[in-house]
Amino acid sequence: MPKTRLQKEETVQILADKLKRAKSVVFTDYQGLTMNQLSQLRNQLRDQGAEFSVTKNSLLDLALKNTSLPISIEPTSGPTATLFSYEDEITPIKSLVKTLKDASIGKIKTGIIDGEVYDALSITRLANLPSKLELQATVVRSLASPLYGIVGVLSANIRNLLYAVDQIRIKRGGEAQA
User: Fold this and answer.
1) Which family does the record assign (predicted)?
2) Can you tell me the distance from the alpha carbon of 147 to that of 139, in angstroms, rounded to the nearest whole number?
3) Tens of pLDDT along 122-148?
4) Which residues pair with 24 in a beta bridge?
5) CA distance 107 to 2
6) How far apart (Å, rounded) are the C-alpha atoms in residues 6 and 80?
7) Is the pTM of this model over 0.70?
8) Helices 91-103 & 35-47 angle (0-180, nearest 10)
9) Which of 121, 99, 98, 100 is nearest to 111 (CA)?
10) Torsion sign across C-alpha atoms 12, 15, 21, 22
C-alpha cells in the first residue's frame, strides 16, 4: 500500500533529524545483499551506535534539502541505503565497507563526515585506516617501549651481580642453586 503524503512528510522529517544528529552519513548501493546479510549488518551497526536504513531516493533528497548538508541524492541514481553513525564516525563505515567487500556486491556512493562531503574512494580509504583504538594502542606501545628498555637495562645489572655472587659461592665450595 502506498504511503500517504502525511506519512511521506513524517518520513522526511525523521530522516532530516537523523541527518542532523549523525556524525557521519554514508550513502550506498546495497543491491544484491541478501536479507540475512542486511540483518547481520544492521545488528553489527546497532552495536556500534549506528543505523542502516533503506529509503526512497526522493524522500532522502527532500530530507537533505531540509538540512544544511551540501549534498543531494538523485532520485534516479538507483536504490540507496543510508548509514547513520551517531557515536564513532569511522568504525561503522569500516563494518559497512567490509560487508560489501566480503559479499562482492554493492558499492559506496558518497558520504558526509563532520559536514564534509567525501567520494566513494575517500570513504573506502578512510575505512581501511586503523581505528581510533588501534591508533591509541600504537601510541601507548611506542611510549611504553623505552620504559621497558630502561627496566631491562637496570635489572640486567642486578641480575649480573647475582650471577657473579653465585659463581663466587660455587667456587668457594657452596652448592649450585637450581
Assistant:
1) Belongs to the universal ribosomal protein uL10 family.
2) 13
3) 999 988 888 778 888 999 988 888 888
4) 85, 113
5) 28
6) 22
7) yes
8) 160
9) 121
10) negative
114 to 19, 88, 109: CA distances (angstroms) = 11, 11, 17
Tell me: the pLDDT tens digits for 89-119?
A: 888 999 999 988 888 888 898 888 888 888 8
CA–CA distance from 11 to each of 31, 59, 73, 104, 137 (Å)? 22, 7, 16, 31, 41
Distance, in Å, from the CA atom of 94 to the CA atom of 86, rounded to the nearest integer, reads 14
Residues 104, 33: Cα–Cα separation, whole Å:
9
In degrees, to the nearest 5, what angle opens at C-alpha 148 toward C-alphas 143 and 154? 135
Q: What's the count of helices (H) and strands (E) in the chain, helices before strands?
A: 6, 5
Which CATH number fits the domain 5-129, given the four candidates 3.40.50.2300, 3.30.200.20, 3.30.70.1730, 3.10.290.10?
3.30.70.1730
Q: What is the DSSP string of 48-71?
A: TTEEEEE--HHHHHHHHHTSS-S-
